Request: fold
Amino acid sequence: MTVTDSVRSALEVDKVESHLHPAGSFDVADHVVPTGREEIWRFTPLKRLKGLHADAEFQPSATACTWNTPAGVRVEGVDGDEARALRGVSGLVPNTRFAARVLAEVPSTLLVDVPADADVTEPVVVELTGEDAGVTEAGHVVLRFGRHSRATVVLNHTGHASMAQVVEVVVGDGAQASVISLQDWEDDAVHLTHHQTLVGRDATYKHVAVSFGGDVVRMDANVTYDGPGGSAELLGLYFADAGQHIEHRLFADHDAPRTKSNVMYKGALQGQGAHTVWIGNVLIRKVAEGIETYEENRNLVLSDGCHADSVPNLEIETGEIEGAGHASATARFDDEQLFYLRARGIDDKEARRLVVHGFFNDLIRKIGVPSIEDRLMSTVEAELAKNVLKDL
Amino acid sequence: MSKLEIKDLQVTVDTEDGPKQILKGVTLTINDGETHAIMGPNGSGKSTLAYSIAGHPKYTITGGTVTLDGEDVLAMTVDERARAGMFLAMQYPVEVPGVSVSNFLRTAKTAIDGEAPKLRTWVKDVNAALEQLNLDPTFGTRNVNEGFSGGEKKRHEIAQLELLNPKVAILDETDSGLDIDALRVVSDGVNRFRAQEGKGVLLITHYTRILRYITPDFVHVFVDGRIAEQGGPELADQLEAEGYDKYTSALR
Ligand SMILES: Nc1ncnc2c1ncn2[C@@H]1O[C@H](COP(=O)(O)OP(=O)(O)OP(=O)(O)O)[C@@H](O)[C@H]1O
Ligand SMILES: [Mg+2]
Reply:
């Protein structure tokens, strides 16, 4: 790993901007419209974004939003001064035009507020049900987990929508927070979303991204730390069908000592033109001594004509780390596995089904919310039934 | 009934320099209830024979026939062969990540029988099979062959043999890598299988020690892709004493 001189001098200051991530700004004018040649946009099919990355008007929302409210939790759409105060609450300084525009323009914010010390067993489930993909819209969501609280929030995106979204998550000191974002859109949906999380001192954070549906889904999921000892587990599961573009860009910014990040994303692709992108950026800043990080991405290519990009990036600016590693692999069905199963009488279709289930199984079991785990198992099943097993 | 007939079987594998012939005409009949042992030096084609009968895609059959009770095995897909009553205990069992042993066994049993096993008796049967092979009851929750020791893999193969109960079992070096206790446990499993009416066994091995537990009816010496000699159990002892020299030197 080479550390350039310009970076070296930047190390002296408290917060450096990694060269992987352009400097942020709240001012929309500071962000030019991406052309597709930029490093952070080069994989994304801009033409299919309905202008969300550029200057599409944010129209009144055509997405219905409902939720449950477990005792002790506040879930509410807020506006005015309260909403304004929430913009950037996670420490987010937008590094994309769409995120800057969302924060500048949304009139209101959906706030989930878990008070300090609350132990909420029932997940807060927010249903975002899109009704019209012809409407370009923006959304801002803030999930705040108070100190030493424990809670799970699920964002379930379904239906038809063209949405630019910023989700800010603040995990208080010592809290245990899980955020699960399901992108289970209909085929015409376009979803550009930026998830930014600030992980408190000694807090434990789990972020799960599940992307199945939509024409284009791009999620930037970033984590920074608000003190030593925080731990982030970033899990992801995606399944791209013919023509779909599904992109996940992770950034674990280790800006505090003894912090942890553990990234595990698994994807399957099937059908002509299915495209997935996984970018795993990890930055270990000079101050971040004694950290541990591991990131892994695995892709299973189930048919011809699909393409998986997988790019792990590890930038290390201190020598004092506990452990850092990454793995990335993209493979087709393993003939030996299929042979072994079929030699036990299991037909080809069922054997493939078993292998794909097995591929996702360990990851799904880590989510920790049984109802979602079961649902994902059936979704995997339905995805398989759609294409890969149909022609066999 | 279970009669496996292999006639003049010829098999090639694809290499960078084109197809390479591995089996050069193998003829062997396993009649109802018989156990045959195949012994032969490394690389002589024993696993090739086993895999070819099971239908591994790596091997191309260029001549000969294989029939099970008169049915053309070579015309069947891999899974059809298993459902017709063939079983191969593999020399190197394959890991299947994320698929538990119990799920795998149940899926295989359902496929072989054409219907799901009765839940209550099935769980009992599985536990009994695992226990008889000295496998921990928690084994069922582990992923197939993942992190299994060499011996556990082999015992798991024999547990499958007992649960799936085929007509003919081909055991490819199931004995290698086993300590003496595991060897006995595995041999007992094979003998329980054999004790049933009409089951055929083709046992591939390098060592005579397993033949002290599983007495074969016939022993075949396999050299350079064909059977060089056959005889009774005494042939194994002769091989142990003299090695394969007399067969391999004939080739030089
Ligand atoms: N892809 C390949 N290219 C070239 N040769 C191959 C290929 N696959 C197998 N062979 C050769 O086929 C021959 C037979 O292999 P096989 O595994 O059947 O032997 P075996 O008798 O089972 O040996 P062992 O006792 O070591 O298990 C060997 O010489 C092996 O090198
Ligand atoms: Mg072999």
Observations:
- The two ends of chain A are 47 Å apart (CA to CA).
- The first strand of chain A starts at residue 63 and ends at 67.
